[in-house]
Amino acid sequence: MQNQNNKSSKIVGKQSIIFTNPPEILSGSSVAGKKEGEGPLGSFFDQVEEDPMFGGTTWEDAESRLMKRAAEIAIEKAGLKNDDIRFLIGGDLLGQLIATSFGIVDLQIPLFGVYGACSTMGESMALGAILVDGGYADKVLALTSSHFAGAEKQFRFPLGYGNQRPMASSWTVTGSGAVVIGNSNNNSKNEQTNEENPSIIIKGITVGKIVDYGLKDSMNMGACMAPAAYNTISQNLKDLGILPNHYDRIITGDLGYVGKDILIDLLKQDGYDISSNHMDCGIEIFDKESQDTHSGGSGCGCSAITLTGYIFQKMRKHEWSRVLFVPTGALLSQVSFNEGNSVPGIAHAIILEVC
User: Fold this and answer.
1) CA Rg, the chain, in Å?
2) List of domains in the chain
3) Cβ-contact 131, 140 below 8 angstroms
4) pTM of the predicted model, to two decimals?
5) Nearest-CA neighbor of 67 among 44, 90, 45, 42?
6) Is the predicted pLDDT of residue 4 greater than 70, yes or no?
């Protein structure tokens, strides 16, 4: 790996960081909705909730409850209490992050609220890792969520309207994922790290730029986000001086079938072929033939529960040793769309390794 300054520097290339004391994944939790539980990854999730309201009275209340449940499971799985978590870093798709603020208020953990659209899990984990590696926190909880009905209500059409969805559109995942990040030299896990339960570390990150190709079709977010994923993945490879086969998997968040093809074509222009080791969470989480989700899954919860439910298990079983996790986000709002603006994208890359 190329280092821009000296051997002790964490700054690598133009946009990357390699941690000198790589933080460890102490636990991860995944809570999914009924449709997600019926998909190919359903057996990997900690909980599948049949009630789309999660016991609440509104879609927004449902997402807050979903988020709180994921946070509590992750903390419990790490063998910790709420007071053991120094900071919580989280966000969602709803206006002013109301799913997060109402969802975690009872946990009484100091909060950094963040917004990266569907890339929020990557942003939360990146900032959490920086805090732990820098000695500003010993344990951080990264958290995000999305809810199909809440997203449809805010960004598209009321569910009762029954509009026809174009084939390029994706289905917002109902789910919440949480990750406890800690100092690998001083953790409080219940289960001892060993050959059967290996440690997963955050080796480094590549922070994404906002990339805007001028696309305005909010129903084709895969095409809007693919250029940002291309920019971040290409920069990661350049910063570290590596080829795509350095990773067992390069995993994007929710590009879907349309965005996946665009990403692979763009990277080939830079001389990188990721077609053999690329995976997209939005493609994996639903069955294309039986679940009628068109281009695949999307939403903050899409990459979050795929990571905590599926990817972590594949790594702990030594099937994958090194993964580049690249959640993708479309940075639009009701206001920007109604004013005729384009849909910029952003993607953040997290380097995960089995230690």
Assistant:
1) 19
2) 11-182 (3.40.47.40), 200-354 (3.40.47.40)
3) yes
4) 0.93
5) 90
6) no
